[in-house]
Amino acid sequence: ADGGRERMLVRDDGSGMGEEDAKLSVLRHATSKIRAASDIESVMTLGFRGEALPSIASVSSFSLTTSIGEGAGTNVLADGTGNVSVSPASHPKGTTVLVDRLFYNVPARRAFLKSARAERAAVVETMTNLAIAHPGVMVRLVEGGNEVLSLPAANDLIERLAQLYGVGKARAMRRVDHEAGAYKVTGYAALPSITEASRSRQTVSVNGRWVRAEALSKGVDDAYRGTVAAGRYPPVALRVEVDPRQVDVNVHPTKQLVRFSDEKEVRQVVSEAVRKAIQGTGDPGPDRDGRGRDPGTSGPYSHPDSEGGTDAPLAAREHHPTEGRPANETSPPIPTAKKPTGTNKGGSVSSDNLFGTSRGSGSRPPKAPDLSEQRRRIQQASAPLSRAGSAPGVERGGLPRLRDLRVVGQIGAGYILVDEPMAAWIVDQHVAHERALLDRLTDPEAERMPTIQSLLIPEVVELEPQDAAQAAESLEELSVYGFEVEPFGKASFRINGVISTLAQRDVAGAFRQAISVMKGTASGMSREERILATIACHSAVKLGDRLSHPEMEALIREWLGSRYPATCPHGRSICYRLDHRDIARKLDRH
Questions:
Q1: What mean pLDDT, rounded, does the chain reach?
Q2: Is residue 313 one of the residues assigned to a domain?
Q3: pLDDT digits (tens, 9 = 90+) for 419-470
Q4: What is the DSSP letter of 192?
Q5: pLDDT at 274
């Protein structure tokens, strides 16, 4: 209740405790895990110092009920004043811990608890990571009568990942199996085409203990360096096995922060393990029912219902930002639901919402709070960012001049060729349109707000548990950005309307990415800018979209008229200049 601040109950069906152990469990520094001093260096259990239960019992109304399955169980009550009572109790085999009114007797400490929303998110994150570290354990999380997590015991790790993230994302993960020196690394790592705005889906366990360690995070970052943009994090679920004497789990009371005897070595081993998997030598993810593939089979998963078109690969390629895939990477096609794509019968993209501001028949002004406040807050922040690894931009003065240019046509299934007296320009149509749309969304001088367009067929989007929790807490904020959303089941949401520029594009993708952005952080970018940049990205035309000549001219005109036309919101270059003299030299016309 209240994100765990008012009440939290934890129940397991483990081996339970007898009466004597139950009484000892609430005494400080009492432990059943350490028999000799040498055990401290080799202990494999999650805890052993006798701190957690006594500490919690001293700052709450605390109850522990346990049974070993034979005879009566034991109930231990503590009221935070030092008084402890023990009595027989009826209880199935296992243990139940109930914590009420956390920090009720320490008001100064209670004031430092985070909001119910933040504490709830932390609980969901903890349970999710524990479920990944122990896929064979059934996990259920309930808040206020609503089931937040319900994960049956899985046969293996990839089945657990499919339960949490869906078969589609699990299928885009590759098996990790690498051993070097004292370390063995197993698990799964996502292809670089699947990224998140935070590390929340990067889970690493060491000897069965879910941990955080800088060496592990940097090892994962090293493996993906050059294949994903800065500030993006592909999901991974790794298990590191090592001699317990090589890792110090006593750095932090929760045992979540650990240190290795050789940080450099473990970083290198993790990096090699993940890199080997994503470069094509690892097995692909699960089959259609979420189970892992037979190790004897090879090649990417191919869904029998998937089509041979380019929709899925383009969607993956435009899952922004993702560049520099390994040449030998194979990404299995992911079936997508059919929906309007905003193209006319001739195959070109409709310009009604993309390049114009005319209001469609289903459009109306937003009834939720509008974007004007966001526009004011991020007017300065919407300048292009300088990011490590980005291609060099072009100064505004070096861009083509609108009055001199001539749009020649579309080349390479996604690039617009523009000519002017001294040079030709190749323009990335997706990035240019993204830049123009973000400028439109953040322009404080805009004559009117973007309209909200009702979807003819509302989209129902099923989210992963952590994202569903974030969405449920953010419905009002989502409405500020034009998402008319309502809960539609345990972890599903129905999108009834969106900003008109997004209505015929990737509505579900924009919604999912906006939720991901709300959970993450990015240096130099405000939360508002990242959300609006997400909307602009998913609203923009994609590589492969055919444009008519007037549509190309409209796109180029709006792009060059934007405030920051040199680079996209993520810092990538938009265009490339080919000087006419250089072309002449290349063709030996000196």
A1: 76
A2: no
A3: 888 888 899 999 899 888 888 887 765 544 557 788 888 888 888 887 888 8
A4: T
A5: 95
In what helix (H) or strand (E) does residue 87 lie, and over which residues does it extend? strand 84-89
299, with CB counted inside 10 A (0-12, 13-18, 19+), is exposed
Among 59-73, 209-223, 415-429, 565-579, where is mean pLDDT lowest? 565-579
The reply to whether 95 and 139 lie within a common domain is no
What region does 202 belong to: left with phi over 0, alpha with psi -120 to 50, or beta?
beta
Choose one of 91, 113, 135: the last residue of a domain: 113
Task: With a cut of 50, say whether residue 166 has pLDDT above it.
Answer: yes
CATH number at residue 511: 3.30.1370.100
Q: What end-to-end distance do the CA atoms of the chain give, in Å?
A: 78
Same domain, residue pair 84 and 178:
no
Residues 384, 283, single domain; the answer is: no
Residue 287: half-sphere exposure toward Cβ, Cα within 13 Å: 10
Q: Tokens 């501001």 correspond to what residue?
A: 357
Asked if residues 491 and 166 have their Cβ atoms less than 8 Å apart, the reply is no
CA distances from 244 to 54, 186, 210, 258, 273 (A): 26, 17, 14, 11, 20
The domain that holds 89 is classified in CATH as: 3.30.565.10
Domain contains 221: yes
**Structure token digits, residue 23:** 């009484």
State how far the Cα of 87 lies from the Cα of 65, in Å rounded to an integer. Answer: 9
Omega within 30 of 0 (cis) for the link into 321: yes
Phi-psi region of 504 (alpha: psi -120 to 50; beta: other; left: phi over 0): alpha
CB 387 within 8 A of CB 573: no
The answer as to whether 191 is a domain residue is yes
Coil, helix or strand at residue 264:
helix
Q: Which domain holds residue 103?
A: 2-113
Structure-token pair, residue 71: 């005879």
Q: Determine the distance from the C-alpha atom of residue 391 to the mean position of all C-alpha atoms in its chain, rounded to a whole number.
A: 25
DSSP state at residue 546? B
d(CA 565, CA 559) in angstroms, rounded, equals 6
pLDDT of residue 132: 94
Please, are residues 303 and 335 in contact by the beta-carbon 8 Å criterion? yes
| Both structure tokens of 344 | 């006319």
Contact 99, 56 (CB under 8 A): yes
Boundary residue ending a domain (113, 136, 159): 113
- pLDDT (tens digit per residue) in 140-149: 999 888 888 8
Rounded Cα gap, residues 295 and 207, in angstroms? 24
Q: 321 in a domain, yes or no?
A: no
Q: Convert the pLDDT of each residue in 66-97 to its tens digit.
A: 999 988 999 999 988 888 999 999 999 999 99
pLDDT tens digits along 528-551: 878 888 888 888 888 888 888 999
